[in-house]
Amino acid sequence: MPKLSPTMEEGQLSRWLKKEGDKVSMGEPLAEIDTDKATMEMQALGSGVLRKILIQEGESAPLGQLIAIIGEPDEDISALASKAAPAAKAAAPASSPEPALAEAASDKNSPAAPSVSGNGKEPAPAQSSSGRLIVSPLAARMAAESGIDLRSVAGSGPGGRIIKRDVEDLMAGQTAKGPGTQSGQTHLRAVENLPVQKPATAEASAYRDQPATEMRRTIAKRLVTSLGPVPHFFLTTEIEMDRAAEMRKGINELDPDLKISVNDIIIKVAAAALMQNPQVNASFQDKIVRYYEQADIGVAVAIDEGLITPIVRAADQKSLSEIASEVRDLAERARNRKLKPEEYLGATFSVSNLGMFGVDEFTAIINPPEAAILAVGAMTPKPVVRNNEIVIRQMMRVTMSCDHRVVDGATGAKFLQTFKKILENPLFLVV
Amino acid sequence: MALVTMREALNQALREEMRRDENVFLMGEEVAEYQGAYKVTKGLLEELGPKRVIDTPITELGFAGLGVGAAMVGLRPIVEFMTFNFSILATDQIINSAAKMLYMSGGQFKIPIVFRGPGGSAFQVSSQHSQALESWFAYFPGLKVVMPSTPADAKGLLKSSIRDDDPVIFIEQERMYGNKGEVSDDPDFLIPLGVADIKREGTDATIVARSLMVPVALKAAEKLQEQGVSCEVVDPRTIRPLDIDTIIQSVKKTNRVVIAEESHPFCGVAAEISAEIMERAFDYLDAPVKRVSGGDVPMPYAKNLEELAIPNVDQIVAAVREVAYLD
Fold this sequence. Notes:
The complex is a heterodimer of chains A (about 425) and B (about 325). Chain A has 9 helices and 19 strands. Chain A is of the alpha+beta class. In chain B, the strands form 3 sheets. A 7-stranded mixed β-sheet of chain B has the order 3-2-4-5-7-6-12, with helices on both faces. Chain B has a 5-stranded mixed β-sheet with strand order 9-11-10-13-14, sandwiched between helices.
């Protein structure tokens, strides 16, 4: 679907002027398109035979979506046609200024270039030191035809060049790799099965990018219009902390040097809950949703100049004692302004705790591009009803802020449910 | 079909075409009495006589000019250069007369002539006698340039060249005369000019190779197969007209290209093919086109240096691994 007016974002196919099987030459009128402004004639961008019409009259398509295939009469277009189906759902980049009528024809006289998203006209991604996206011509074409934003692709070629296999990996939903790495295994973990002690990586989490669905993108667009770039909503629950507090006391009695805090337990439990609710361990990045494979938990630390959130990497794989000593070290160095950037940039989820200030309950602001943050209030003894009797329990209120572009109410609620279940019964951590 | 050497295959082509058409005649240094410096013309004087198989003096410019004149009046000369190194002396007749006569005479004079002989690197004959000249001749409109890599191709292509109405430069690789292969004995076995041959099919990378580099590329492809890389080896067979379509189809399939040649890299045939691929298949390339060429130096005499100046299997393997992003 080519851009036929300066503000056009999608077009409705009003009338096809050619049938499948008709010969077309470059520049010839191919169809009438209703844009947001007027009905416009769309011209063929290449010569050949109109092999396949993918959008029927009356249907709409966003800019850049494949709407028809022009090729040689006997050319094999099955790959292109089958690709068109997913491409139709995962809308092509709306910011692409190029028309993306698929040019299957190899006719040397019609060198109509297929659209390339992520070209020089768009904001440069952090792919190369010069800020320019380096991509092989083939990979660029494949990405354009599949509606993949190249900015979401990690290049594995020389100098970070994005090559065919990177785009294929992404299309196959495989793990995106850092530069120069070979294909590896994707580790799926069930937190319950993990031994408590396990060497955990100090690296930032690996992740898996998935094209954002049309619904996801519509939700995102509408919410942003209403609430600003990161549309928050909030979920609050009250958690009975007696067992967690008891566990903490027990561990610290075993080894007073461990000095496990309630917050350390919260970090551990949040990480475990994230592993069980991977939709929350995510990031909305315009055309894709990025799902992380480990829980890198940012821990908000107040310092004299303000606030910083050092990160406990792979908290899901670390023991409480590791988390405790790591948080102490990070917080200490945060106060001394000694953190390295990789120690405070790139968390997948954050925890902010104002309980020590006696705050019962508050809402925290999401640290983009994370999808959620958990605001933790003070643990206080309160009368609650258990078995029809009023008893005193240590209660703590937590409020989760969710980025509604990626986390819906029920998704957030399920996470919070898991979080509450584990925290109220911390033995789940070792089951 | 019979298993014959490249030398015998060429001899068969000459013999069959001279039997078939009495206008075809052969001349060159030592082609008759001595039966050819490389024995390609063995037995031809005996069978066809001294009017059709003619020993010339050592005067390349002179007998190339005689050939062009004979072609203008309707004969079909085959001019043998003892090696293509000596064709350099005859280039005025080849380029200024043979290549341009049809055009300059407004179509009145066809020049159905074949200039043939060994070319490319030879065994330790140093700088002046060991060089690849195809890019010179391919540069000029009006000349066809043929470079076979197997006995069958040599026979089929030489027969087509002799029957062709345009001047043809037919370069036989000096190191390959003894190579054996199955060759048809059908007197009308022809391979059309301008049609490439896929010597091996593959999916991961295309190696374009001609002449001596074809067997080298095939060995490299075998080695790469063991490493899990499937290579397609495309032999253009004629440099001009170039069957670029077959090359482009292969590139569209594999997305990666290595071009192997024993000539110097600068302004070589690989540079031309590389440009064509970029113009016609840019959107299908996953890596820059990689050339593996001979050294950019006069051919050294010393055996160890000579080896370094000619592309080998390992260089082609390394180049393919580079374009396939495997290292």
